[in-house]
Write a structure and sequence with these properties.
277 residues; binds phosphoenolpyruvate; alpha/beta; binds manganese (II) ion; 34% helix; eight-stranded parallel barrel; TIM Barrel; two-stranded antiparallel sheet; globular; single chain; 9 helices
Length: 277
């Protein structure tokens, strides 16, 4: 039996992220820009997602871009910005780490270490994050079977780190109308095979902002424990993934819909903060 297998913990795992539960009755919502760009963008977006009811802030400082000529992220400066916005808002931070040599450094800033789709097969990285005391958000490789995905999680668990959150983010298929094909089949299959929490990223899963609310509703309906959603204060000016980023008002509207779906399936979503004058 593997450590990730459902039989090894039939009651399921609830991962604590600096006070936010992932895998419990409440749907965890991680939202924020694809990339950390500047203080204004980061603070405006963080405040907007918090007001909408997000309970964890996302933002990439080290960006794995397909083209080496595209914006690669603000790196160390981006982590400083994240830390500042996290302190301003009180939101825990999830951010990607790509390099084994940077794991210890990113741990000083992040509440959750994200291992991206491109790095799901980076076994030394999985071992390294498995040696930390930070929760790990492990995204499914865009070409990985669910069994390969679970073995990747097993690398982290084997290192002694029990706090792994799985994330379905779409896989590559023959379909060209969307960036990826969001594999919603994966949620009930994973929930059956493993005790680890499973969240869904409909932003990378579709590549279109206008599809994100529909697929978020679907994700909650099929049993996802949370969502990872890209939101930008001004998507037209985003340095990465603007076309799949919701505006703050779109995010707030989506959260409203999510609450209704969550209630229908016996779950809850955090309430938005009361607006302050
Ligand atoms: C991200 O969430 O920032 C990201 C790069 O996604 P993925 O690894 O799924 O492509
Ligand atoms: Mn992105």
């Amino acid at each position: 039996m593997r450590l990730c297998d459902r039989e090894s913990r039939p009651e399921g795992t609830v991962v604590d992220v600096s006070g936010v539960e992932v895998g419990g009755r409440t749907i965890a919502v991680m939202a924020g820009p694809c990339a950390v760009e500047n203080p204004d963008q980061m603070l405006a977006t963080a405040r907007a997602v918090q007001a909408g009811g997000a309970n964890i802030l996302r933002g990439g400082a080290f960006k794995p871009r397909t083209s080496p000529y595209d914006f690669q992220g603000l790196k160390e400066e981006g982590l400083e910005l994240l830390k500042w916005v996290g302190t301003e808002t009180g939101l825990p931070i999830v951010t990607e780490v790509m390099d084994t040599r940077k794991v210890e450094y990113v741990c000083r800033y992040a509440d959750v270490l994200q291992v991206g789709s491109r790095h799901m097969h980076s076994y030394p990285l999985l071992e390294e994050v498995g040696r930390t005391d930070k929760p790990v958000l492990l995204k499914r490789g865009w070409c990985a079977t669910l069994d390969e995905f679970l073995f990747a999680a097993e690398y982290v668990l084997k290192g002694g780190n029990e706090r792994v959150i799985l994330c379905e983010r779409g896989i590559r298929t023959f379909e060209q109308s969307t960036r990826n094909t969001l594999d919603l089949n994966a949620i009930p299959v994973l929930k059956r095979l493993t005790h680890l929490p499973v969240i869904v990223d409909p932003s990378h899963g579709t590549g279109h902002w206008w599809m994100v609310p529909a697929l978020s509703r679907a994700a909650v309906a099929v049993g996802a424990d949370g969502l990872l959603v890209e939101v930008h204060s001004a998507p037209d000016q985003a340095l990465s993934d603007g076309v799949q980023s919701l505006r703050p008002e779109g995010f707030a509207a989506m959260m409203h819909e999510i609450r209704a779906v969550a209630q229908a399936v016996g779950r809850t979503v955090a309430q938005p903060l009361p607006t302050r004058d």
